[in-house]
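Researcher: Sequence recovery benchmark, item below. Answer with residues only.
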């Protein structure tokens, strides 16, 4: 089993992402939600122990504790092949550049995001992995 992990401190954002993703990916992937980077790291560790591969992480930028770019950099250092996408309403250009330079960030979506565009990007990136 493979998974898509969504990380955002706002519950309504996680619910919206979950609804968007489940419509298209629930047959193939577990859709996991985390309200903080710490929760996300716990899920990542748990999945690694269980042999579940996270293929995509969609992360907010502005979260308590650690910003999204820093979180994605830490993830990338250990799991460079995970597809990384950032959602933001407030990220500054420096943070976005930091994530792009250090994580192979695929795209930054402004909140509110275009669900169709997000799903299409994920589909394209997953297809590229399987080629």
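Model:
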């Amino acid at each position: 089993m493979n998974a898509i992990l969504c990380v955002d401190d706002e519950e309504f954002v996680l619910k919206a992402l979950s609804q968007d993703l489940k419509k298209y990916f629930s047959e193939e992937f577990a859709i996991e939600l985390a309200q903080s980077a710490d929760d996300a790291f716990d899920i990542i560790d748990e999945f690694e122990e269980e042999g579940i591969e996270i293929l995509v992480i969609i992360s907010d930028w502005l979260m308590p504790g650690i910003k999204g770019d820093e979180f994605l950099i830490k993830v990338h250092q250990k799991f460079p092949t995970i597809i990384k996408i950032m959602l933001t309403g407030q990220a500054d250009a420096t943070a976005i550049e930091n994530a792009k330079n250090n994580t192979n960030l695929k795209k930054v979506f402004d909140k509110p995001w275009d669900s169709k565009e997000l799903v299409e990007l994920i589909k394209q990136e997953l297809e590229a992995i399987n080629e």
